[in-house]
Amino acid sequence: MKPKVYIDGKDGTTGLQIYDRLAARDDIGLLLIDEAKRKDPGERKRLMAEADIVFLCLPDAAAVEAVALAEGSGARMIDASTAHRTAPGWVYGFPELRPGQREAIAGARYVANPGCHATGFISIVAPLVQAGLLSADADLCCFSLTGYSGGGKKMIAQYEAAEKAESLYSPGLYGLTQAHKHLPEMQKLCGLKKPPVFTPIVDDYYKGMAATVPLHRSQLTGEATLHQVWQALADHYAGEKLVHVAPEGSADAGSKLYGNARAGDNGLTLVAAGNDERFTITALFDNLGKGASGAAVQNMNIMLGFEETAGLL
Ligand SMILES: NC(=O)C1=CN([C@@H]2O[C@H](COP(=O)(O)OP(=O)(O)OC[C@H]3O[C@@H](n4cnc5c(N)ncnc54)[C@H](OP(=O)(O)O)[C@@H]3O)[C@@H](O)[C@H]2O)C=CC1
Ligand SMILES: CC(=O)N[C@@H](CCC(=O)OP(=O)(O)O)C(=O)O
């Protein structure tokens, strides 16, 4: 019997992208809700009870309600919202995080899919903390560029309006009070004693992210070199199919890194750049790929025992 999969919130930005990645697969059965009933709690509950895996692609409050709706059923859940990312009983859905994380996801009932900006930050900082190059009480910063689809249907409508505000033609910095919703997961999953100073920036392009952590050499344990940082990342991600480290020295004086470099695919590329004293590590990926829907499908594949990259490469 094929596993049955239900996407709650299928008509949203993340839900549609999950649907696109699953629609052509013949190794799962997709349960589809009647369009007119897509917000009907009774009908959603019925489909969740039939499903082996439920994706939640909903605002946070609706995701919490959906978990309650599925109570008592055997459905395993992958929540794309921020609601459960640091909650007890939920496994964080970044398989490349550390040894054992993949196995934890494989056996989990509840998997919290990472936030898009958090994916970039964690992919850079967690390996460096684990390798002992950054201490748990490091003072870190991060700036992270995203396309406007990161804000879901509402933000897409603002950016695509026929007469949009002049300001939306230029990059917009936000999260200025240092209370962005991804900060708790960034801190917890990296094992940091304090969150970074975080500057998310949304710009006038549809999708794609460039999340950067700038580092002075003096911030690194034993004043580690750029080569050591690159090597620690390369070692951590050796053998991974979706996360790659660009060759050492690949960013030179003439290089530019673009926010949409990996738009449209499910992988993430780390680029280490700089000089003898000051470095940047940048994660390039798609907010709707490894930053949301691609990651959610990767987690589903792991939970169901499929090839991890099925439908993703
Ligand atoms: N966009 C992105 O890049 C990322 C998004 N996420 C997270 O994924 C989740 C979904 O975001 P996104 O897809 O962008 O948001 P959207 O606003 O594009 O989609 C949300 C969908 O949920 C539906 N919905 C809202 N309330 C309910 C309900 N009670 N029952 C059933 N359906 C409901 C909405 O219906 P309607 O169409 O009527 O509005 C909409 O279709 C959010 O928690 C978001 O933070 C995570 C990572 C990246
Ligand atoms: C452009 C924009 O507003 N982006 C959203 C992040 C989208 C996302 O990934 O948020 P969750 O994964 O936590 O749902 C934001 O920064 O709040």
Automatic annotation (TrEMBL):
Pfam families: Semialdhyde_dh (PF01118), Semialdhyde_dhC_1 (PF22698). Pathway: Amino-acid biosynthesis; L-arginine biosynthesis; N(2)-acetyl-L-ornithine from L-glutamate: step 3/4. It catalyses: N-acetyl-L-glutamate 5-semialdehyde + phosphate + NADP(+) = N-acetyl-L-glutamyl 5-phosphate + NADPH + H(+). The active site is at 116. Coiled coil: none annotated. Residues 4-105 form the Semialdehyde dehydrogenase NAD-binding domain. It is found in: Cytoplasm. It is an enzyme of class 1 (oxidoreductase). Keywords: Amino-acid biosynthesis, Arginine biosynthesis, Cytoplasm, NADP, Oxidoreductase. GO terms for biological process: L-arginine biosynthetic process. GO terms for molecular function: N-acetyl-gamma-glutamyl-phosphate reductase activity; NAD binding. Catalyzes the NADPH-dependent reduction of N-acetyl-5-glutamyl phosphate to yield N-acetyl-L-glutamate 5-semialdehyde. Belongs to the NAGSA dehydrogenase family. Type 2 subfamily. This is N-acetyl-gamma-glutamyl-phosphate reductase. It comes from Dysosmobacter welbionis.
